[in-house]
TrEMBL record:
Region (Disordered): 1-46
Protein name: Protein FAM178B isoform X1
InterPro entries linked: CANIN_dom (IPR044276), FAM178 (IPR026161)
Gene for this chain: Fam178b
Biased composition (Basic and acidic residues): 32-42
Assigned protein family: Belongs to the FAM178 family.
Domain (Coiled-coil SMC6 And NSE5 INteracting (CANIN)): residue spans on this chain: 89-384
Organism: Mus caroli (Ryukyu mouse)
Amino acid sequence: MQMPRDSFPTDWSPPPVEFLNKPKKAPPAKKGPLEDLEKDPPDPNQKVELASLEELFWNMAGPSQQAGTPEIPSGGSQCYINNLDYLLQEKRMLVEKFSVSLQVISPVHPGETVFLPRRHPLPCFLDSSRLKPHSPLEELFLRSSLPEQLSFLHNGLLSNLYLHAADCPQPLLQWLFQLLTWPPETSSRAFGLLWDLSIDGLFRQPDEDMHFWCPSLQEVKKVFSSLGAYNPALYPQGPFQHSSRVLESEASLDSQDPPQEVALDIKLNYIYRFLILCLLVRPASYTDASILDLMELLCRAGLDVGLCLLPKSDLQQLLLLLLERIQEWPGKLQPLCCALSWVSDHHHNLLALVQFFLDVTPRGRQLRSQLSLVIIARMLGQQESLPFSAEKTQLALLSQQLSLMRPSSLRQCLGIETLPSSLGQYSKASAELDYKVCYLCHSLLTLAGVVVSSQDITPNQWGELQLLCMQLDRHISTHIRESPQAMHRTKLKDLATQTYIRWQDLLAHCQPQGQYFSPWKDI
């Protein structure tokens, strides 16, 4: 008895094979040394044979396959395997359904355009009108041109002239400070000589009559302007909103030139280190108003787009010293936070600004907490209604703002403009709006974590922290719906979960004795 066999369709034929159009490489044959130098020209009949083979397969295909398979153009550059345009309609819908969006929440802030790169540094002339030479070599240096004076610096002759002198002229120190904005080969020598002259003057002068030169606020601003910092008063819309003529006059650099992030970082670190030395030697060298302006200037410079991925240890140390040198504290805390909260309009840049300040001192933790609250209130449009009295604690103020950080509320704030009416544009605009909402909520939730971590939680604040945990779970965690097409929601969900666990751990450590803690208790 014969077993029944599966019926085989009579009109079956293999699908068209595109890869047959690509000529296969023949295995290398053993040739002599002379034959290896000569290559056979390609056979012109090879493409014709492959084309006829493809036509043969196509003619053998059934009518159903010819109707269901789209036309495939020849050529390896337009291979239909990796192109959505040549897929069937149902396959295309399947791919689009399970496609993953490339929009993810970046761990690095976008930065601001603060410094415009320059091709050539600005000239720095030494004011020698009031200087009297004490030697023929010094007289030659003072009468020389700028290139010749720079050769004195590069050859080490200035160290022989002024390093062990009784009194170093102040115009020379000012000139060396301005040279910190030049290329690294010049700025490194200028910084080394400026540092040596300043340290040498400390040991040669008595303590009761010590004279140490520190640059003024105007001189620091002049140095930043020489580095390419544009004036916000002249360019309120940013440097790229103006014509190319303005950019050429300000930057003197073509847009195709590579950026000089490393050189800029080296120059800024030289400036930061010398200012640190000035604050250590002369703690009262700057007034409170000058310190606030200087901190705002330094924070703007630290947010430059070319410096986002570079370490900022010198800047953090300088900001920490400036913060400790404020005389009227905490009276200057609120004006400082209000000024720093407007350094940038992007929430991620403001989050990076908060991280410029280390939490190793009480003032640093106090500034981080207060500045985070001000930034959250500004991003939510509640800065005018945010009270800063001592009656309410920072956890109570954060509790008022946390309820406004709900993704649906942020979507209403960001989606004020009318979305497109067409279906395709509406879907794309809605996905873009959803990404912006999650991005903003991620930054705000990180700032909320900074506020809580900067506090010394006591048993008296146990109820406020418990309320924050309830609001976090009620207003944020439960309103995030994860999707394979939106990985930014998953990252926001992870941050909310980690924050909730961290706050629960704080609750367990500061729990009042004799009180049972229940995270599901309705408050």
